[in-house]
Each structure stands twice: as structure tokens, then as C-alpha cells.
């Protein structure tokens, strides 16, 4: 990290800690709320009594249903947010998001296709989703580099349109496969729209073994990624391999997307919203942006899930629908803002 970045980071360390602490407190409050709300509402006092007096019905509701659901939501939201933040930086594209670029759709198509194989259950959801995520991600990665070296890096909408085309085609394939195959319909009809309903501890255990290694590797790449944020020529002059750092960071982002999508379905807009809010509120250093985006992504998914469970009781909306309701206006705002800059420049 250059001296300029280090000084900027050091002079603002106290406000940064306060902002991250505020996000952590908000996430904790939402996690507590997630344990209380649903078809059967619990009061905070009632929740505390579970720890003091054994109540099998409420213990099952909180510890076997709502707690793992909240944990999966936080892990998936953090993973998609970090992936989106990294992809936005690598593409130098403020509209980049794993859902909008087709990475989540690739994971979904791969998972649905391989689920038809008799031996696929032995692989686990992550390994079924990974091939499609890697293929879609590789296509977008190559396309972003082609745009960058051809001088089209200032046309971010083109990359999003290409990703939207991929998402549309793969999304149609997933929907057709699920609707036409009874074997897939029961297991994937809610999943393909993004849902946290019915998730348990098995899903928590299927997430963290893949999220942690990807997150650790991404953290080790932070110094080089910070240099890439400044300028490509600066990174090259300091001996940083652009292609190696970019490829490894992109691979980590793909792993995060595949793991999250395999469990909760293709949730769009999480990376877009979280990456933008993190960059608007925090310094441009990955050492701060990554944890900040992770907290914001976890907050966004938990908030959407709480709204999905409380807006139409006793019915439950899909979490993916609520995230789309929150994220689509944000995408419109960002697109208009970019278009306005293009006209004035």
C-alpha cells in the first residue's frame, strides 16, 4: 500500500471504527428481530425465558428454524456483497453485480442441470453450482478485460447488458427445467426466486467451509488490490501482477457467489447496493471496504427477509422478491447518475 493510502487510512481510523461498529450494531439488532418475527411472534422477554426455562416448542422454533435462517441470510448476504464489491473494482464498473452479470444465473443453471444426475447428490450443492458460476464468470472477466484494453472501459452499461442477456437466457433455462421436471419442481420452485424459508443448520454447515477460505485468500490479496484501485501503471511500477491479482480475486468472488447461490438461490442487487454504499460511506481501501460491504450485505438480506415474513402475515413472501423491490430503484438511480455524468463530460 502506498504512503498516500496509508496516511489517508490512518487519519480516519477512528471514524472508520465508529462506522463499522454502527453497522455491526444494526446487524445485531436485525438478527435479534429475525428471531422474534414470523408467523408466530415472540417478545424479547419470551426469548430470554427460553434460556432460563426449558420450552421445547419455542426452543425448536428459535434454535432450529429462525437462528440458522438468520445465520444463512447473514453469510449469504456478506458473501454476495464482498463479491460484488470486488467485481465492481476489477471491472472498474459501478454497475457490476454477480446477479446482473450472470454469475448467479450460471451457478443456478449448473446446479439445476447437475441435480438431474443420479450421483450429483454426493457432490453437495456447492460443487454442483460451481461449474456454471466459473463459466459465466470467465466470460464476464474476459469481456471486461477486452473492454478495458480496447478503450471502452468508460461504457459500463455495455457490460451490464451482456450480463443481462446471459442472465435472461440462463434464467429462462432454469425456469423451464424446474417447471417441466417434477423431480426438480418441489425442491427448486422457491429457491430459483431466492428464499431463506426452510433453511437449517445443514445449510449453515454447507456455506462456511467454502466462504472462509475464499474470504481469507481475498484478504491476503488486499495490498495488491488497493494498488489496482489507484492506477494500473502504479501497480505495474511497484511489481504487482495485474492479471494474477485480478484473476485470483475474481476466482474468490466466484467461489463466494457459487456458495451463496447454491443455498439461497440467485439473489440479485446485493453486491450492487452493498458495494455502492460501502464506497460512499467508507475510504477507498479494501481493508475497510470488504468488512464494510460484508456487514451491509448481511443487513440488506436480513432486512429483506424480515420484511418478507411480516408484510403479509401469515403468508411469507420470497426474500429475493423483497431484495429486488429494494434493489431495482437503486439500480435505476445509479444508472441515471452515470448517464448524467456522461452527458456533462
How is the topology of this model organized?
Elements: H1 3-11, H2 13-36, H3 44-52, H4 56-91, H5 103-114, H6 125-149, H7 156-180, H8 182-188, H9 201-220, H10 222-230, H11 232-237, H12 242-264, H13 270-281, H14 286-310, H15 319-344
Helix pairs in contact: 2-4, 2-14, 4-9, 4-12, 4-13, 4-14, 5-6, 5-7, 5-12, 6-7, 6-12, 7-8, 9-12, 13-14, 14-15
Main location: membrane
Subcellular location: Cell membrane
Protein name: Iron complex transport system permease protein
Structural class category:
mainly alpha
Separation, N- and C-terminal Cα atoms: 31 Å
CATH class: Mainly Alpha
Radius of gyration: 20 Å
- How many domains is the backbone divided into? 1
Q: What's the architecture, going by CATH?
A: Orthogonal Bundle
Taking pLDDT < 50 over at least 5 consecutive residues as the criterion, the unreliable ranges are 1-11
Would you tell me which CATH topology applies?
ABC transporter involved in vitamin B12 uptake, BtuC
- The gross shape turns out to be globular
Which range best describes the helical content: under 10%, 10-25%, 25-40%, 40-55%, 55-70% or over 70%?
over 70%
Mean pLDDT: 83
| Tally of helical segments | 15
Subcellular location: Cell membrane
Membrane topology: Multi-pass membrane protein
GO molecular function: transmembrane transporter activity
InterPro entries: ABC_BtuC-like (IPR037294), ABC_transptr_permease_BtuC (IPR000522)
Summarize the structure.
Helix content is 78%, strand content 0%. The chain has 345 residues and is mainly alpha-helical.
Amino acid at each position: 500500500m502506498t504512503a498516500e493510502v496509508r496516511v489517508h487510512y490512518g487519519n480516519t481510523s477512528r471514524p472508520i471504527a465508529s462506522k463499522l461498529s454502527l453497522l455491526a450494531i444494526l446487524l445485531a439488532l436485525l438478527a435479534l428481530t429475525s428471531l422474534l418475527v414470523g408467523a408466530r411472534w415472540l417478545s424479547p422477554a419470551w426469548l430470554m425465558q427460553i434460556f432460563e426455562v426449558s420450552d421445547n416448542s419455542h426452543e425448536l422454533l428459535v434454535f432450529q428454524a429462525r437462528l440458522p435462517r438468520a445465520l444463512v441470510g447473514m453469510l449469504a448476504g456478506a458473501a454476495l456483497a464482498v463479491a460484488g464489491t470486488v467485481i465492481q473494482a476489477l471491472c472498474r464498473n459501478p454497475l457490476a453485480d454477480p446477479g446482473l452479470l450472470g454469475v448467479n444465473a450460471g451457478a443456478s443453471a449448473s446446479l439445476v442441470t447437475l441435480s438431474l444426475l443420479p450421483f450429483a447428490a454426493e457432490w453437495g450443492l456447492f460443487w454442483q453450482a460451481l461449474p456454471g458460476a466459473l463459466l459465466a464468470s470467465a466470460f464476464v472477466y474476459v469481456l471486461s478485460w477486452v473492454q478495458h484494453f480496447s478503450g471502452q472501459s468508460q461504457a459500463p452499461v455495455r457490460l451490464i447488458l451482456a450480463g443481462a442477456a446471459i442472465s435472461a437466457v440462463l434464467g429462462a433455462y432454469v425456469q423451464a427445467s424446474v417447471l417441466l421436471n417434477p423431480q426438480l419442481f418441489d425442491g427448486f420452485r422457491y429457491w430459483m426466486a431466492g428464499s431463506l424459508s426452510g433453511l437449517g443448520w445443514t445449510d449453515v454447515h454447507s456455506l462456511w467451509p467454502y466462504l472462509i477460505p475464499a474470504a481469507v485468500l481475498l484478504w491476503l490479496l488486499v495490498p495488491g488490490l488497493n494498488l489496482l484501485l489507484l492506477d494500473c501503471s502504479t501497480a505495474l511500477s511497484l511489481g504487482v501482477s495485474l492479471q494474477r491479482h485480478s484473476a485470483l480475486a475474481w476466482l474468490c468472488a466466484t467461489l463466494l457467489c457459487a456458495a451463496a447461490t447454491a443455498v439461497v438461490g440467485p439473489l440479485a442487487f446485493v453486491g450492487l447496493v452493498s458495494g455502492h454504499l460501502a464506497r460512499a460511506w467508507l475510504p477507498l481501501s479494501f481493508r475497510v471496504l470488504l468488512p464494510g460491504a460484508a456487514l451491509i450485505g448481511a443487513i440488506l438480506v436480513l432486512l429483506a427477509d424480515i420484511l418478507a415474513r411480516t408484510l403479509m402475515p401469515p403468508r411469507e413472501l420470497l426474500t429475493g422478491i423483497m431484495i429486488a423491490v429494494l434493489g431495482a430503484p437503486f439500480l435505476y438511480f445509479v444508472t441515471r447518475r452515470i448517464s448524467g455524468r456522461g452527458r456533462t463530460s
